[in-house]
Task: inverse folding
């Protein structure tokens, strides 16, 4: 890359600080400003990264700064306002994370605002961006394992709008297809009737645009993640680099193959690093993002369709959904902010770069 991009980080909790680490490490990016509502953490993060342009929110930041890139790392309730503010401020690209808002029409507004203004809208810290996941998808798309015959999703429960969106993003990537219809059953009933999806377990089936029917298993079993298969191969993603099986032994069991993946350029940053590198590459050269705002929307839409299909008596729902006012809220810490284990990062931890709570 020939251009050095200036970056603003909007939201400097644990994940926002991780974004700042990556952008400050890369040779062609420079973090010039941060926005953070907590004044003590704002000061600590600014001191740690040597940034003096500190603001309370995105609106204040964009009144004074014109970054090339905005990384929106906020709780879900505040993502829409910040993404649209970034697009209207004239950034070249903006990224955000999962779960992307709760209402489909709000996500539509973000995608459309960026499209109308020619702003690249990227996703962030999803395993879909893992280098090995992307490489396995390229092998599948190149036909290395033959035409796909099936796909399945496993252990899809707990929070389908949050962690569950990882499954949908990988499924769509591996199958190179969209979900066109959802039918689902869900439990427990109180989770199904709740506005949020904490503890919601979904079983069902996705119909894909390539003609495949994808069973969805919500309860825990010996497998989790996403699997796709052809006549003689199976590729399984289970929150780590995909496992590949090809061929059968003399008893008919699948044979695991050790096909090496390309080493990562910045291994300590894992899939946030590869996601950001993809973002920068597409900004510079065009092409397809590892994770896009569209991908985040598709994950949320599948989760919403599954919840309402189950709630309404396992009715088949076609995608895209016609009612864009439908919502699905994540658990409160994802929606409003905070740490899911109630161990809020201290100022000292922010200064030291301690992104995860210390354990005794």
Result:
């Amino acid at each position: 890359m020939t251009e050095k991009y200036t970056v603003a980080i909007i939201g400097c909790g644990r994940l926002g600080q991780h974004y700042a680490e990556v952008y400050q490490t890369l040779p062609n990016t420079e973090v010039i400003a941060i926005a953070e509502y907590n004044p003590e953490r704002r000061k600590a993060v600014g001191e740690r990264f040597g940034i003096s342009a500190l603001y309370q929110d995105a609106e204040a930041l964009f009144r004074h700064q014109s970054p090339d890139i905005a990384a929106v790392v906020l709780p879900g309730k505040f993502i829409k306002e910040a993404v649209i503010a970034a697009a209207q401020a004239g950034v070249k690209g903006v990224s955000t994370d999962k779960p992307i808002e709760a209402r489909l029409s709000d996500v539509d507004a973000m995608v459309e605002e960026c499209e109308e203004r020619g702003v690249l809208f990227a996703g962030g810290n999803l395993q879909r961006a893992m280098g090995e996941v992307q490489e396995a998808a390229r092998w599948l798309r190149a036909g290395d394992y033959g035409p796909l015959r099936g796909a399945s999703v496993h252990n899809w429960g707990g929070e389908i709008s949050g962690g569950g969106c990882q499954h949908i993003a990988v499924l769509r990537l591996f199958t190179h297809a969209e979900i066109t219809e959802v039918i689902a059953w869900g439990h427990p009933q109180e989770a199904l009737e709740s506005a949020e999806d904490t503890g919601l377990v979904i079983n069902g089936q996705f119909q894909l645009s390539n003609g495949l029917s994808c069973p969805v298993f919500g309860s825990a079993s010996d497998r989790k993640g996403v699997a796709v298969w052809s006549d003689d191969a199976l590729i399984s993603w289970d929150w780590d680099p995909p496992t590949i099986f090809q061929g059968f032994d003399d008893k008919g069991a699948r044979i695991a193959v050790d096909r090496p993946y390309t080493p990562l350029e910045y291994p300590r940053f894992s899939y946030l690093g590869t996601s950001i590198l993809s973002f920068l590459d597409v900004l510079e050269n065009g092409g397809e993002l590892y994770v896009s705002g569209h991908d985040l929307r598709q994950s949320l839409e599948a989760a919403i369709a599954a919840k309402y299909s189950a709630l309404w008596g396992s009715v088949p729902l076609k995608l895209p959904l016609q009612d864009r006012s439908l919502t699905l809220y994540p658990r409160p810490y994802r929606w409003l902010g905070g740490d899911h284990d109630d161990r809020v990062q201290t100022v000292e931890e922010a200064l030291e770069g301690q992104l995860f709570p210390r354990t005794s």
